[in-house]
Amino acid sequence: MKLKVFTLRLDPVTGLFDDREIVDFQTDKEVLEVSDYQFTHDRVPTWALLMRYRDAPAAVHGAVQEARKDWRAELDPQAQRLYDQLRLWRGRRSKREGIPPYMILNNRELADVAVRHPQTTTSLREIQGIGDAKSSRWGDEIIAVLVAAAAAEPGDAVPAVVEGAPDAG
Predict the structure, then answer these.
(1) pLDDT of 90-137, one tens digit each?
(2) 32 shares a domain with 53
(3) Structure pTM?
(4) Core-most of 26, 43, 94, 153, by most CB within 10 Å?
(5) Does residue 44 sit in the same domain as residue 94?
(6) Is 163 among the domain residues?
(7) 3-state SS class at 67
(8) Interacting residues of 112 by C-beta distance below 8 A, sequence separation 6+
(9) How many of the other CB atoms lie within 10 Å of CB of 4?
(10) 55 is in which domain, residue-wise?
(11) Are residues 43 and 105 in the same domain?
């Protein structure tokens, strides 16, 4: 296990944190856990991230190509529907938490969840890249999205997931 600290300052022009360094860093890493801290330094909002990671077994070149891959295009229609619902949930969750969506689940992880549709947080942890941290933090909501999508008819809007769903694992 390795640790990396990122410190991002708020850009006063855009009002955003430039996370390109984090995105580039993750291309050949498997992120195990992320802790974030928000504070003000010299009157500038600052975001510090402590990332626990290990080097991914895939070569850097393969990892970069995988990151750019259109995972949705490789799914059957039912899995695409689940993928879309999971992306919608991930986008809402990331906005509430103020973190980039890929820190919750990257697109490959979303596709794997959509294909395998795990029914418990334990089975969710069997998906590469989803460990204890992600499953304990968001696992119940991910399972709830899958259950709601399974209950809905194709073409129906899936209801928003209520936070604090009962433990599924």
Answers:
(1) 999 988 988 888 899 999 999 999 999 999 999 999 999 999 999 999
(2) yes
(3) 0.56
(4) 26
(5) no
(6) no
(7) helix
(8) 127, 128, 129
(9) 15
(10) 2-63
(11) no
